[in-house]
Write a structure and sequence with these properties.
This protein has ten helices and 18 strands. With 377 residues, the protein is α+β, with helices and mostly antiparallel strands. It is globular.
């Protein structure tokens, strides 16, 4: 006997097919002209319903129709072959919002991906990872026994409901280690600052969460009070975040000019001008291969407007913007809706931004940035 959900799918399938047949009949009698796109949509919906019913009836184990439906919705978006567009379940959407707000449930590590693997680049003090002895430079090999090649997918696997367990396998000094940790609520401070010497300040922006632009300005003001008349701004391993926060930080670094150029689907372009007061002191921006998205907006704006020098390695190359729409059932769709380019119109997506000073040695990047900013008049 079929479950109620399976019967509901059967009813929906019959309704869709019935409507399709009715529209076709009306069209054949000359009573209406139905756009071909409508027929295509009905055909796809009918096939989806038939597949769900067949899988539900014939799979060798009991199925969950909600899981099948989520898989179907995710598959529709996956058909775009765009890793930045995604359908989110209600739980995934709530976790995503928490992450943007600067807190999430996980173990407290930041991961960077390069040719050497998925490497731990930051550890939140007092987090489960910190307590378990994780170190910067550890290479994450598996999560709950599964390997990942993508930073985003790995991060999603590590995160989860508060109080649940996750087993992380990592490599250190060519030796493999596994730790089972309990996920906790992690609160991330996205702006960190300190004095490097008597006159040089340092501000690291680890991600563009809510209110980061205000935190950045406050950090610079505090450094000025401590005697800083120049600053190094570190965007290394910053994978982006909120577009508006990136634009506001870029605006704070420019006296004039444009911040970025939007390129819309129909070919229309729109420039975003800098229109607020800048921080008013010389600066250098540090970047690397994991500097992406909103971080690249800042980098491109500074470079094209000659606001300060860029030091490090070529940035990641994510020059597209997503809009997230919450659906009525609590799920959400994050969809790429526009491309952005540098103020001078240079393509960023899949190309990245080359620094003014290329410094490949990670340990020497900050030193070189300090030398450059100290030589600025």
């Amino acid at each position: 006997m079929k479950s109620k959900k399976a019967l509901a799918v059967s009813f929906l399938l019959g309704l869709v097919i019935g409507i399709g047949g009715m529209w076709a009949a009306v069209n054949m009698m000359g009573g209406a002209i139905v756009p071909s796109d409508d027929y295509s949509n009905i055909r796809y919906l009918s096939k989806a319903g038939m597949l769900m019913n067949y899988v539900s009836d014939s799979y060798y184990r009991e199925t969950d129709m909600d899981d099948l439906a989520d898989g179907m919705y995710k598959g529709i978006v996956a058909g775009l072959d765009d890793p930045y567009s995604v359908y989110m379940t209600e739980e995934e959407y709530e976790n995503w919002k928490l992450d943007l707000a600067g807190n999430y449930c996980g173990i407290g590590i930041t991961i960077s991906g390069d040719d050497d693997g998925l490497e731990v680049v930051r550890i939140v003090s007092g987090s489960p990872a910190d307590e378990a002895g994780f170190e910067i430079g550890d290479i994450i090999k598996k999560v709950d026994g599964k390997s990942y090649d993508n930073v985003s997918e790995l991060a999603d696997a590590i995160r989860g409901r508060e109080g649940t367990r996750v087993t992380v396998t990592y490599e250190r000094n060519s030796n493999l280690h596994s730790e089972t940790l309990v996920r906790e609520r992690i609160t991330v401070k996205s702006v960190e600052s300190r004095m490097i010497d008597d006159y040089t300040g340092y501000v690291a922006i680890t991600s563009f969460k809510e209110n980061v632009s205000e935190d950045f300005k406050e950090a610079v003001d505090e450094l000025k009070k401590k005697g800083a008349d120049r600053v190094v701004i570190d965007l290394r391993d910053n994978g982006g975040g909120l577009l508006d926060e990136g634009i506001k930080v870029a605006d704070a670094l420019l006296d004039s000019g444009n911040i970025l150029t939007y390129i819309y689907r129909e070919g229309k372009t729109e420039k975003v001008p800098a229109d607020s007061e800048s921080i008013g002191i010389p600066y250098v921006v540090l970047v690397n291969g994991q500097t992406a998205s909103a971080s690249e907006i800042v980098t491109a704006a500074v470079k094209d407007n000659e606001g300060g020098m860029i030091v490090g390695t070529k940035t990641f190359g994510k020059g597209i913007i997503q809009s997230t729409k919450r659906l009525s059932d609590g799920t959400a769709l994050k969809l790429t809706v526009v491309e952005y380019r540098s103020p001078l119109g240079n393509v960023i997506h899949e190309k990245g931004i080359k620094p003014d000073y290329v410094v490949s040695d990670t340990e020497k990047q900050l030193q070189r940035a300090v030398e450059i900013v100290e030589s600025t008049d």
